[in-house]
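Weekly structure sync, notes
Attendees: PL, DS, HV (note-taker this week)

Item 1: UDP-N-acetylglucosamine--LPS N-acetylglucosamine transferase
DS walked through the input record. Source organism listed as Acetivibrio mesophilus. Sequence as pasted into the shared doc:
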Amino acid sequence: MNVLFLSISLGSGHIKAAEALRKYIVLRYPTAKTLIVDTFKYINPLIHTVVVDGYLNIVKYAPQVYGGLYRMSEYRKNVNRMSRVLSQLMAPKIHKLIQDFKPSIIVCTHPFPLQMIAYLKEHYNLAVPSIAILTDFVNHPFWFHNNIEAYIVAHDYIKRDMIECGISENRIFTYGIPIAPEFLKSAPKAQVRKELSLKNTLTMLLMGGSLGIGDIESAFKSFAKCKRNIQIIAAAGKNGSLEKRLNDFGASCSIPVKIFGYADNIPMLMDGADFIVTKPGGMTISEALVKKLPALIISPIPGQEERNEQFLINSGAAVRIQKNTNIDSILCQVYDNKLRYTQMKEIAGTLAKPDSGHNIVNLIEKLINDNEKGLFKYSFNAL
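Item 1 (cont.): predicted structure, written out as tokens:
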């Protein structure tokens, strides 16, 4: 089995989804040949730098501009057409990669490489079954193609939305975003806190994703000033300056704090926490849901993360924290009220998809077998 993953490193969630699924494939097929490609970087490092740096700068310094562009891409067909034209120009190099690697199946965790695959299927007679994994709790027109064999989505409401947009129901699977197998194991809170040299008391896990984006510093200071027994675990990601500022402020805190940079023990940190305080990236939220960890949402990126936030709040697994929110008041409502806290944990558990990785591997097996039997016809027209 040869599995080609095509993704883009706009944030870490898209690549992490591919890495997580690869682990399940290797668990079942130890001799499988897998390749994860950061698509823009592979095609042209300069394009990668321009796109990724441009995205990060807009998100950090002009998030409302990004939100406006995102909304335009949802409703204006000319934006979608422009994206597809750019993908078509870059597709031939990916076609050469496919010819060399000879995948049994292609998995896309970002819509841009998926557009390339859809184009290659239509114009280059590419006859390799392909899967799209949506890494947020929201649909988007950039994903819409009717010659992609399967779509993996996080929830039934996304499936209904995609059906209304013209994607056939039998190609949509509500398996959820795949998370690493490490998140399926758990340890008692008291044990984790002891290992981290923390007290066995109310614990907040602050995260900003691998890039440390979001107003984590303000949230950290707000929780540190909280008038109750509380402690903080903070993961600053690859944001070294944020890590330093948190350490400087934490040194003068009267409450226990534990500061990490880029942490590779996130499953353990989640086990030790009572809440996760984070911007609502699809991968981080999926991991927290499996841990039945209620979320306090900060700094959603306008666009897909705002949609993720709406889903979580409407479902009852999260609440929003604004910059000047009274933390004591929030905790009185969602933690001191044991019924509310228990419900948030239970709802998180019902939204979780812990079997996602295994289910997707089952689907991969079926698609490969069906393709070998000649059950697919690759003559669809793009939507």
